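Let us practice reading a record.
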Amino acid sequence: MGGTTAKACLIEDGQPLTAPEFEVARAYRFKKGSGLPVKVTVIELIEIGAGGGSVAWVDSLGLLKVGPKSAGAEPGPACYGRGGTEPTVTDADLILGYLDPNYFLGGRMRLDWSAAEAAVRRIADRLGLSVVEAAWGIHEVVTENMAAAARVHAVERGKDIRQFPLFAFGGAGPVHVYRLAQKLGLKRFICPPGAGATSALGLLVAPLAFDFVRSHYGRLDSLDWAVVNRILAEMEAEGRALLDRAGVPAGDVAVARSVDLRYSGQGHEVNVGLPDGELGEALVGEILRRFVAEYRRLYHRAGPEVPVEAITWRVKVSGPRPAIAPRRAGQRPGRVGQGTGRLRRARRRRRGRAVAYWATDAAGTRSQHRVEHCRAHRQWLYGIPPER
């Protein structure tokens, strides 16, 4: 979850699920089918307009909505102090106490709590809520939007999302992961260190790989296997040559071959891994067995008793994963880097529905934390006012 969008991907056995195509130039950014298909293998992601900069608004029916419009990086959320005035997810998270106004961007940026409060108050006044209740509503709506998208994504891939732990990264991912995991019924979630830079890290440590695709149509029971083997060999040779030029030793190259199959008359294919070695009539039974097993896994039913067609042949040639040795950087100044961010309650006093806490960090700095009860959601909401 970043500044403008939230993306989700299922990972099995350490491998992300992939798709044989993706869309470009969509007329509607988040509407599948409104763009131009490009037949290139990509990581299978679902994307919605839910990020830290997503703008909260009230529709004509008086319902609270979040996104897909975003404040972006410029001017950004109101709390950035760069001229933004619209209420965003980040503003709501700041009001709820999920963000430390004095330790944002590693302490290099201070957030404007008052500006966030003024922005969210526009929503609160429209809905007849307190500022904290409105902020909680924004937090809940955007989290539910992500949960709904993740459920659909898992179901479309034939997966039970409750069997997966949730890995939260991106600048806003860990902020919303707890409630998101609750909504999805997940038992575990993982927040990596440096979550905001995880995507960049992934780009650096991903193994070098090339995907090749060739179309050659035919029924499995009547294919010209000599042509198929030639096509597969040509793609593998091309990939090995590219990796050799990149300096990857031949012994470290991995090759994965697959084919897109479908029952005759269907409009969608199922990708199935191919056996190693030269293909021929003797392996047709094994290929069919793999296809039927994958089809049943995806759709939980057996297919019709009709011939099976091969549409597209694929070869992925990849090098080894780069060896990385993470090391702990020197401690940075600031209470988070030095582990001094733990707050302890010194005293509390009641103010109507709110409970005020005086907390002291390791440096002896005192700050007041207001805790307000939201009756509508039966939740305790934490608001941190700016330092006085």
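A brief commentary: Residues 1-200 form one domain.
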